[in-house]
Every structure is written in C-alpha cells, then in structure tokens.
Amino acid sequence: MTYNIAIDGPAGAGKSTIARRVAGELSFIYVDTGAMYRTIALGLLREGIDAGNGAQVEAALPQIQVSIAYRDGEQQMLLNGENVSGLIRTEEVGNMASRAAALPCVREKLLDLQKELARTHNVVMDGRDIGTNILPEAQLKIYLTASADTRAARRQKELQEKGIPCSFEKIRDDIIKRDDQDMHREIAPLMQAADAVYLDSSDMTIDEVTEKIKSLVNV
User: Fold this and answer.
1) Does 10 carry a binding-site annotation?
2) Mind listing the pLDDT tens digit of every residue in the chain (219 residues)?
3) What pLDDT is stored for residue 207 in this prediction?
4) End-to-end alpha-carbon separation of the chain, Å?
5) What are phi and psi of 138, to 5 degrees?
6) Is 76 helix (H, G, I), strand (E, B) or coil?
7) How far is CA 79 from the centre of its chain?
8) Which one in 27, 72, 94, 118 has a CA-CA gap of 20 to 30 Å to 185?
9) What does the entry list as the binding residues for ATP (predicted)?
10) Where are the domains of the chain?
11) 178-213 burial, b for 16+ CB within 10 Å, e for fewer?
C-alpha cells in the first residue's frame, strides 16, 4: 500500500517548495498539480483561448496533451511532448491556470493522471483540493497557508532573484484575486479538509515547516 501526503493551500504559501523538500527527504515522489494546470493554461494561451469560454476550452483540450517526466527526481512538465517546465511560472500563466482550473473539463482531464501516480507511488502531492477531492483517503493532509503580505514578499523576492521586474502591490493584488477565485469556484474550491493539519508558515522557515510535516508522517 502506498503512503500519500496531501498539501493544500493558497497561491504563494510555499506548497511546492515544502512538498518538494519533504518528498526528497522521505524518498517519495513529488507531484506538483499546480504545474499540471499551468501546463494546460500555457496551451490555452498559445491557442488564444479565453478561459471564460468553457465551450472553447473543452474543444481545445484534445489538442493539449499533458504528461510528466522525472529527471534526477525533479518533475518535468511536457506540453505535447515539449518540456515547458521553465515557461509556466509567469503571472500570466498562473492567472490563466486559476481560471481554467474552475472548469470541470480541465479538472477531469488531469484527475486520472493524478490518482494513478498516487496509486502506484508514495507521493507528496500539492494543490488546492488534494485532500478534499483528489486524494481524500491520503494518510496525512496539511493545509499550508501564510498571510497575503508574506506570500507577496516571497514571490517578489523569487522574481527579483531571476531578474524579473515586479511590483509588490501588483503581486499582492494578484494573490488576493486568485485566493478569491480559488475559494469561490463551483468545482472543488480551495478549503481545509476536515482532517487536515492547519499550518501557518508566515513566521516559519522552510526547514521548520519541513520538519513539522515530517514529524506528522507515520509510515
């Protein structure tokens, strides 16, 4: 039987960083579901599709093939066979992903891939609805969050280190907007699972959060 860890939370809470670290230290596979949605979003942007038009999105999905490869333990996202891992982290793609993820047709396209990974591997999977919808039977569920200001500051630092010009206020506004979209979408909204451990990382280091989650694992 596999052991699954589900980490949910809002944009910029550090889910990917923490999930990757925990997976590495436990020798689990890290599954970044947000990257899956971002890959579909990139495909929609390239096709000039409006995520607000569900019919257009559904018609375009058969031409958007998403797959995963692992290289040196790192998840790589492939869009129609092209490795787009370095192209899906822009704010434009993130905002499109948040809108597209609200559509049932998009979620259904990725659901089987996510569940199959969890059935066949010990995984740490992060996203918005992992513990509530994708892996409701996960042995450990974490709801990881942080204040909007903290999340915006982290994102600004990340972009600045990459040499990308950015505005703290714009990033913070985008985060608040995405929180609202994610929490109020009709399909699988962002929420804390009833049996999830609530973890606010605003005043915690990456090491502290990682150790806290590892202390809750019972393999």
Assistant:
1) yes
2) 899 999 999 988 999 899 999 999 999 999 988 899 999 999 999 999 998 899 999 999 999 999 888 887 788 999 999 999 999 999 899 999 989 988 999 999 999 889 988 999 999 999 899 999 999 999 999 999 999 999 999 999 989 998 989 999 999 999 999 999 899 988 889 999 999 999 999 999 999 999 999 999 987
3) 96
4) 10
5) -55, 140
6) strand
7) 17
8) 118
9) 9-17
10) 4-216
11) bbebbeebeebebbbbeebbebebeebeeeebbebb
Number of H helices, E strands in the chain: 8, 8
9 is in an annotated binding site: yes
The answer to whether the annotation marks 94 as part of a ligand binding site is no
Q: Consult the annotation and say whether 132 binds a ligand.
A: no
4-216 placed in CATH 3.40.50.12780 = no
Please, are residues 145 and 13 in contact by the beta-carbon 8 Å criterion? yes
Q: Which residue's entry shows tokens 């993820």?
A: 101
Residue 18 tokens read as 């923490």
- Pairing between β-strand 4-8 and β-strand 123-127 as defined by DSSP bridges: parallel
- On whether 127 is known to bind a ligand per the annotation, the reply is no
According to DSSP, the residues that pair with 142 across neighbouring strands are: 7, 197
Residue 62, annotated as binding a ligand = no
Annotated ligand binding at 16? The verdict is: yes
- Token pair, residue 39, equals 């890959």
pTM above 0.85, yes or no: no
Q: Which residues contact 27 (CB under 8 A, 6 or more apart)?
A: 122
